[in-house]
Amino acid sequence: MASLLYICSALCAMSMGVYGQYEWQARDAFDEVRLRMDKVNADNCPIQHLSDLYLPEDAVSHLPDIKEININPVFPNRTALLHLHNMAMSRSFFWSYILQARFIRPAINDTYDPGMMYYFLSTVADVSANPYINASAIYFAPNSSYTPSYRGFFNKTMPRFAPRTFRADDFNDPIHLERISTLNTFTVRDLGAIRNDSLSTDYASEFYRINEWYKKWLPDNVVGRHDTKTTYQVEIRYANNTNETFTFHGPPGADEFPGPVKWTRPYFDCGRANKWLVGAVVPISDIYPRHTGFRHVEYPTYTAVAVLEMDFDRIDINQCPKGQGNSGPNHYADTARCKKETTECEPIHGWGFRRGGYQCRCKPGFRLPTIVRRPFLGEIVERATAEQYYNDFDCEKIGWVHKMPVQWETASHHVREMYLERFYEYRNFSVGARSLHTSKMNIDQALKFILGVNERTCKQYTPQDLILHGDIAYGADEQFTNEAKMAVRLANFISAFLQISDPKEVYSGKRVADRPLSEDQMIGETLALVMGDTKIWSAGTFWERSKFTNRTFFAPFAYKKELNTRKFKVEDLARLNKTHEIYTNKPWFQFLKQRWSTNFDALEKFYMKVKIRFNETGESLKKYEHYPNFYRAANLDHGHWTAPYFDCDGKVKHWVITYASPFFGWDSLKVKLEFKGIVAVTMRLLELDVNQCPDKFYVPNAFKDTHKCDKKTSYCVPILGRGFETGGYKCECLQGYEYPFEDLITYFDGQLVEAEFSNIVANNPTRYDMFSCRLAGASSIHGSFVVLLMVFLIVKLLLR
């Protein structure tokens, strides 16, 4: 009987389960989502209930919103989502432009649209250029896609067309004998190649269980309306100095509701990638139907959607309680295990979908124990046993706090001299461009010079003054990573097209090879870089001499004059013929050309397994004639960052920094690769955050260790989003010290510290001398009877 009771109790305990890492931890929202994810896999997803294939909409919080991108800073735990957002917008702008670019060219009985391989390789490049993006697709509405890839197919549409690429797990692939997952193998499919009677595989059907991305924008019923789609204007100047203004319809503008990008709920990509994905969806516009002969019945319509997706488990979650900056919706709000009596939660990035992506900071009025150096790390708190949790991870109360002084006074002579001796660069300093060339930089004078150069004053300086040292742009490779990846993506696409697509290849049946890249396609791709990412002020695709079809020089260069605009400009820089103006003589072009003149072994090798449609109506899939195939292209590290410069004679008259990425194709004999050109994007220097905190001696940061924290009692921590000005940091108290003031924060703000230090330099009333932490020697000002008694006895013994 006893054994029976024991077995029953054990079975009950097993059925209840343990949801936290330890039994003492209560089940919360994170555990619920984890259980739902583990419930679905590749084997059982076809028979799961539809609701089980989706997670709650608030399972991903703090989604990038284009209305806030240029207002509020985007923090590191959302930069991957932001890039997904920008890539989806860029793809939508390009396809909308190129599908309507036929109105630029003369009317002929053929289509100017890109061929099928252009679509396939475009989605491949979306994924190959960014390890965080795991899938890219273009889903056309039924009978909305035109193609030049079949003979006799003019003004006919394919029933369905949906080129999609997703990153394959090549760990066990026979082409990789090392048995190591390279992340460089892609599965490419045309999801529109289906039988007419197969509703469950028709992505436009109600029976396709995971097509929420399709329903976000399609079908688009706009019959009878010509004014439902946002228009964008492009002024084009060609190499022969002829001009054209082209207006095309695109996705909704940033100032419209709900904006151009819609997000899907996290869903299980059943039968395809078999992963939990999150997608950004942007509509693609076209004038539909085509070639009717009656323009008034051809309406701007959303004919397709661009969908880019990333793995759900690579997205950071925010476990902190709701508050300012975390107002919700957030499914994981208040699941952090910080002790709310003495600590508060602060999220940190890089943890993905797992617990512990936060730290527990002391609340105002509390300080860390003297044996603790930094705030309690959430991962350590989550792994703690019950005994450790209840006995540790507390902050100690500060027993005596100051009021912040209201009346300020001018610093005394010896105090002011002490600080000017410590920061001697403020006593004897250079001004103008010379302030950047001193042994100890006066950051205020350096920024005064940089911020003082503009379109009107740049002519006053020498060309050497308008090129800064590279260490001025410290952090650009990290803060402008998304923009650099946009250039890498286009360079990867051109490399793939030049190496994979052969316009002279002959196929069986009606299918024909893609034509060579056209001027309109390259103009559209370059323009899409500027339109898709607001931080990119100009972009160019610069072809090497005689490498573009039927052109000696070709360099479409797109730029904008304002930050938020719907008017853009494009010029073919091949029209410039002066020696100092020719783009092939630019330092960044020469650098990459020389670097990649002979040896290409370091390039990334990308493998593709492409399956295309059996015929023009779809029916089924078949392997592409070259299966599997590969191409070589540059990655992010193979590009080149320029030093910051002010292009006084250029189109973008700002302090800028340029990133350039090379692309490659076969030589005339198709024996070896050769350098074909570069893709360059340019960003404003003033959108960088200045880092004034100390770092190792070899770190190339011109503003390193220019902060004004009291080094004896505090240390400097950078604050993101402050821009190219001083004060982008906070002064946190060192171990064994405490913040002495009654305040809502527990640190000295860098902007306030810099302002008060400027008052000392100018000999104005200041409180800078009070910005130092206090030694944490006692928890209160109350005396101890035992200590007083011991002191009395010791003194009495000494006086005998």
Describe the 3D structure.
It is found in: Cell membrane. Residues 262-366, 640-737 form the GPR158/179 extracellular domain. With 800 residues, the chain is α+β, with helices and mostly antiparallel strands. Among the domains are: 76-314 and 475-686, no CATH class; 413-430 and 690-775, no CATH class. Helix content is 21%, strand content 21%. It has 15 helices and 31 strands. The longest helix has 22 residues, at 79-100. The chain is globular and about 115 Å long. 40% of the residues are buried. Mean pLDDT is 90; it is low at 1-19.
Task: Give the gist of this structure.
With 800 residues, the protein is α+β, with helices and mostly antiparallel strands.
